[in-house]
Amino acid sequence: MKNLKKEFPVTANYTHLNTAGTGLLSETLLDFRQNHDLDYLVMGSLMKDNQDKFTTKVREEVGKFFNCKAQNVALVTSFSTGFNVFLEALPAKSKVLLLQEDYPSINWPVEARDFDISYAKIDVNLEDNILKAVEKEKPEVLCISLVQYISGVQINLEFLKSLKAEYPDLLICADGTQYCGVAPFDFENSGIDVLGASTYKWLNAGYGNGFFLFKDAVKDRLKPKAVGFASIRGKYKEAGDTLIGKFEPGHLDTLNSGSLQAAIQLVNKIGYSAITTQIELLKEKALNAFAERNLLDDVVINRKQHSSIFNIKGDQQLFEKLKQNDIICSQRGDGIRVSFHYFNTEDDLEKLLKLI
């Protein structure tokens, strides 16, 4: 996979272990953006005359990529933007189950509203904790991250599927920002009702773009209040009063939405087989190496499934040492967060281990 570093020039000068913080700009994405703005420069509004057709193609490509009907794909500027529209679409006083210390962009918007909120603990028994909380609290909505941003703990997707089968009326909304782009995801055959994501991380699509996917059954339960002229513009929205139209009240930027399309096309070109093989290789080697050095929390070590995000034990001095040696990572929680994507190599891991 070393040849893929050429696609991401940052990796020529730095060891980038920070996709969990920010993804990279690829040569493919740069080419699209330069061509897009050149067309805008020389064509002006003539280029924008095709905006609706362009965003329709983006919507359809996102739907195909995640196996979701195009008419159920909303294009948004970020997860937070779409999630707040989603929350406003829920009935007042809804009973919502969250995870303790989940990503602030999930918990804070829920806690800012007048919902009846309960929590499940994030530990080695995460799935059991959620199940017990559902049995006890009987929530109407479950809002969770598929991957925890601090620890890298990953929810078992088969558990969500079985949970939905056992509690079909439970509305499951998931944030896929730290997951989408790592492995193939079949939305229609998942247990998730609503999946949202910002795509500047693992899809390397740049800032200002994201999506929300919906199952058909959700349309009768959500009553979004947002609306604007763009709510009826383009294929799949022309009939008016559509769910995705309420999530897209304003103009969509073709530069940003097109960046998502270009990023998806790059993933398709590389192939998920190669991507997941490389990530799984690095994840296994990193997990074993970190565990041997006593750098991981017991929660991570004792779970059967984990993401390629790790929070290793380390202080400010180690963090500064890594930065001085051109390793890009983040301080999160009580440690140092490192994350491995498909453009990373075993050499990257070895460099990190030597410095530690």
Automatic annotation (TrEMBL):
GO molecular function: lyase activity
One matching Pfam family: Aminotran_5
Top-level taxon: Bacteria
SUPFAM superfamilies noted in UniProt: PLP-dependent transferases
Residues covered by the Aminotransferase class V domain: 52-352
Assigned keywords, A-Z: Lyase, Pyridoxal phosphate
Stated name of the protein: Selenocysteine lyase/cysteine desulfurase
Native species: Leeuwenhoekiella aestuarii
